[in-house]
Amino acid sequence: MELTREQRAEILIQALPYIQKYNDKIVVVKYGGNAMINDELKEAVMGDIVLLSLIGVKVVLVHGGGPEITEMLTKIGKKSEFVDGLRVTDQETVEIVQMVLAGKVNKNLVNLLQNKGGKAIGLCGMDGHMIKAKPANKRLGFVGEITDVNVAPVLDVLEKGYIPVISTVGCDEKGNSYNINADTVAARLAGELKAESLISMTDIVGLLRDKDDPTTLIPKVYVSDAPKLMRDGVISGGMIPKVNCCIEAIRRGVNKVFIIDGRIPHSILIETLTDEGVGTMFVSGNHI
Length: 288
Description:
By secondary structure, the chain is α/β, with parallel strands linked by helices. Helices cover 41% and strands 22% of the residues.
């Protein structure tokens, strides 16, 4: 159904308060999962990010690329091994990770954003020593734990009107590269940048009271409630590290953190520019 001119104008008017609220503010988007594999969804997400950028939002895009890394490792005959959801990364694997994330995936996203009318520059955590790291766990090899973050390169790119597209490869003083979890990087960067919000795009509708029932979405979580939700098993499995990253971002000064379903077209716009929202919002404070 095609919208009339009046309906289009009404939509813009309703979005105006949100546009004003986010104007000149930093929003970090963590992008991964299904929304990254499906070409149609990828096009929609890049279009949304360009739109936010054009209305004055300073978008920082942090991306993963697990499936692409697995695909490349399979091509060279190397089996992927995971411990507690993290990829075991030996010297050969970290070179592949760097090549795929900082090369193929990063530059493809930059190209897509520019084809949608945006201005984008690709960075990885090694550029300007943006993300310094050390081994997180000997068993995992070159999987990194962040030791220091330098946001100056990100701020420089934003100041020139570009969208920074950041791949999550870090480094240490000896020149070693590290594969770092994208949720962890996004949370830390959002905190250091004093972002208005962090939006984590996932393959689920948000935090569910009953993981098997999508109608039990919890739209708002106060960080003080998270420990009880973990004890009750509402937050479990792979959601625990994701929620911990959300809490970390809030504690570092981010106003709001959203976990949204990247499979829904234009979910970023629905979450930022409307009352309804599509996922779970984390905020500081206590549930009254």
